[in-house]
Amino acid sequence: MSAFFETNIEFLKGVGPQRAELLNKELQIFSFGDLLEHFPFRYEDRTSFLTIGQLHADLDQVQVIGRLTAFELIGEGKKRRLTAYFSDQTGDMELTWFKGVQWVAKRLVKGALYIAFGKPSQFGRKFSIAHPELELITEQPRERPHLQPVYSTTEKLKSRFLDSKGISKLVETLLEQGLTKITETLPAPLLQNQRLLSKSEAVKNIHFPSDPKVLERARYRLKFEEFFFLQLRLLKLKLARTEKYRGQVMGQTGLLTTFYRNHLPFDLTNAQKNVSREIFNDLKSGKQMNRLVQGDVGSGKTIVAFISILIAVDSGAQACLMAPTEILANQHYEGLQPYARQMGLEIALLTGSTKRSARDVIHSALLEGRLSLLIGTHALLEEVVQFKNLGLAIIDEQHRFGVAQRAKLWGKNHDVYPHVLVMTATPIPRTLAMTLYGDLDISVIDELPSGRKPIQTIHRYDKDRLRVFGFIRKQVDTGRQVYIVYPLIEESEKSDLKSLMDGYESVCRAFPDYPIGILHGNMKAADKEYEMARFVKGETKIMVATTVIEVGVNVPNATVMIIENAERFGLSQLHQLRGRVGRGSSQSYCILMTKYELSKDSRVRLETMVRTNNGFEIADVDLKLRGPGDLAGTQQSGLTDLKIADLSRDASILTLSRDVARELLDRDPHLTAPENRPILEQINRQKKNAVNWSRIS
Asked: PANTHER family annotated for this entry (predicted)?
């Protein structure tokens, strides 16, 4: 838009310095453009009227035409209120104000005809409306729009008479001056093909729609535009990266062939084969790979990572695998060490617990190129960790690492950036993945290895505990192991959660003849490892733990996961915890224990867990319940702070906008065509606030 919309909000008629300061603080409205993008969150139909005789308490907002017969101030000090008496031919009612009473009283006209708007409440046989909107009816009533906008505001703004109606007046004033100054941001052919309203028509009708149909068209146009520029930016970053950053060419497959023929103990699923093929095509392309591999817990991402490592090492490079916790780094090391040894690869583990003498050996082996694969935690990022030729960096559970931390891995090779493979066992809804990771190539492993049985999930209440204990006994007696997970370590005074220690004691009392372990975040690393090692070896039969086992050691013999206070966990966390069992060929079970009184959202979460094992379906429900900001986390919040579009509700518009953006860039990658000038100008305007997301991996 033009420079007009960059004008400080203070200079809009009706604002001034004090109101401007409040708008800055309360709604982050600093300029004319910010006010224009403060869209209504709902609309009120002001076309229908009721009589006082038609009112009942179940009605939401109503409009009544009546005469103000009298008004009075009642009470003293803070308890003072203003009551007005309002009547029509069918009866009478009261209008009440508890705030701003003096200001309202000065403006009331006794005997005048008004339109009163608000929510009716019933007291005995009488009705009243608290803090109604009042409009004086003159001989020449102004033309009333069908739908009136309702804007979000705050108590502080209301105290300065900037309630929804006050903000509406400011927007009206702004549009009178600025409607003709709104410039088009999309090319004419695109508007025509997609049958979109012009930008100025859309802005006018999002604030003051003439009817519901045009409101829908205005919303659609603005949502499409918001998604289109977001996707265009991500696709341009991807295009720039593939043009700018070359990668080591890795096309050797000798080691991989040997591994397939002689050492791979099972058949890969079709999904694993497809993803391995996509990675191989990236590695041999000469362009730097930036790929995200999504796969549910137990889908076999680690073996796909090892296949990538073999290609890199065979091509003369080194590889590293970084995990967010020592438990997970150890699991990767224990899992890959036998394969690496069979293939003659030197492999090492580097974590915070690694002794100085072992570190020195690792550092020199890395620099000399003798060490092919280094697995570790944040310790990999330390300055002293230098490679001879790092060609492939694999990051597991990437959302646990900050952008700056991930970027440090890029700097571990001074000649050419290493290929980056990012893995996550947290399924990300497709719309969120397209937005957060739109500049990455995305692969999905959506198939579980053959022989795995779906985990049976059951919801039980506290009253069923003895029955659940009986089930645990049966499982342990057949040689299986059990996890029991609690949300907290210590009992909180403000909370009714069962503490881990109380739970541990009650489990010990219920099963005096079974060896029982305990695991929580406050234990020393050595104690955690000792307890986990006992469970892995089968020395303990029941592991009572907090969520530290959420991403933990693979125990194929553990077949039962009991989650206490399951209503206190988010959907993705419940799904992650459930994934700790079902790692072997035996039937596994997840039992969700809750109290009887549950919120609506809790019931939806629990029903979803019982209904499906599909992580992507679960992630979609999670997106609808929690919204994109919570799922994305603070690091990527800039990509999900959408003004009008909604990732969970507008998936079809997002997909279309990405397709349109991709087609446009295929035809005109640098947007030099005259018809695309509006797009280029809009991108340049947006650049002021843009973040460099090209290194999101």
From this structure: ATP-DEPENDENT DNA HELICASE HOMOLOG RECG, CHLOROPLASTIC
